[in-house]
Amino acid sequence: MKKIIFTDKAPAPIGPYNQAVLTGNTLYTSGQIALHPETGELITSDIETETKQVMKNMKAVLEAAGMNFENVIKATIFISNMGDFAKINSVYGTYFNEKTAPARETVQVACLPKNVNIEISMIAVL
User: Fold this and answer.
1) Which helix (H) or strand (E) holds 75?
2) I need a labelling partner for 125 at 20 to 30 A (CA). Which of 19, 50, 62, 67 fits?
3) Which residues cross the membrane (predicted)?
């Protein structure tokens, strides 16, 4: 059985998908980009600010499912420029305890939705 997770504290889906789906004790999130949930404005002034907005959106989705970043077991980061890796990693790292951080991959891609520079999805468990 699956439960759809939705919060107005993260951007609403813009297609035939949901912010997250909980099945059993496992949460699968859709990718989050740096859309401000209230204004719909893209926050892309610099990669650090963009990454922070993505993580704020992800935090809201996790909280809507009764979880937090400690519940995350896997993260996938899509970036448009591998040259931004160190800056992204620096921001991303502030959300996790290094000793219990999730598994992760970071992949450079040709293009992301709305031409953003970063998108992150996660899998979490209760």
Assistant:
1) strand 72-79
2) 50
3) none
Q: Which residues of 51-63 are buried (b: 16+ CB within 10 A; e: fewer)?
A: bbbbbbbbbbbbe
Question: Encoding tokens for residue 72?
Answer: 């995350």
d(CA 124, CA 126): 7
User: Is 28 within 8 Å of 20 (Cβ atoms)?
Assistant: yes
CATH of domain 2-125: 3.30.1330.40
The string of DSSP codes covering 90-107 is: HHHHTTS-GGGPPEEEEE
Query: In the chain, where are the structural domains located?
Result: 2-125
